[in-house]
């Protein structure tokens, strides 16, 4: 009786795995016999090698470095772009402090924000300025 319930549990787990996976990926794992085989296959495919992770992180660093606010771009959209790249970098193991992001934003704003950036740098300690405070200050002047 126990073997039957274990077999049923394994079959149910396999079924759940197959239901949760996108159809385009499903075709590549249909031949797997168990949920553990599916997990191992997915892990190999999507976790990547350490060399690949380093390459991804290097590409993200470059993307972060060259990001500049475009003329006519809203503060909210620019913050979203910066934070998307910064969060991807953090996810890939980069130890990025908020002060680095704050400084990047201040240095990469369009010229129309020059006076605001100067005002922020003179009146606040950039090293302790939070991203929320910076965004709020820039939104007020947008």
UniProtKB/TrEMBL annotation:
Pfam families given in the database record: Retrotran_gag_2
Domain of life: Eukaryota
Provenance organism: Nelumbo nucifera (Sacred lotus)
Official protein name in the record: Uncharacterized protein LOC104605613
């Amino acid at each position: 009786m126990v073997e039957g319930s274990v077999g049923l549990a394994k079959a149910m787990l396999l079924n759940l795995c197959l239901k949760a996976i996108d159809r385009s990926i499903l075709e590549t794992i249909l031949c797997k016999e168990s949920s553990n085989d599916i997990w191992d296959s997915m892990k190999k495919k999507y976790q990547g090698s350490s060399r690949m992770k380093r390459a991804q992180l290097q590409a993200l660093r470059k993307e972060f470095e060259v990001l500049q606010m475009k003329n006519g771009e809203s503060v909210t959209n620019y913050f979203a772009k910066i934070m998307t790249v910064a969060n991807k970098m953090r996810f890939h193991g980069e130890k990025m402090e908020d002060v680095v992001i704050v400084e990047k934003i201040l240095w990469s704003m369009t010229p129309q924000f020059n006076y605001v950036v100067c005002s922020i740098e003179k009146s606040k300690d950039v090293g302790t300025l939070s991203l929320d405070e910076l965004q709020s200050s820039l939104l007020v002047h947008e």
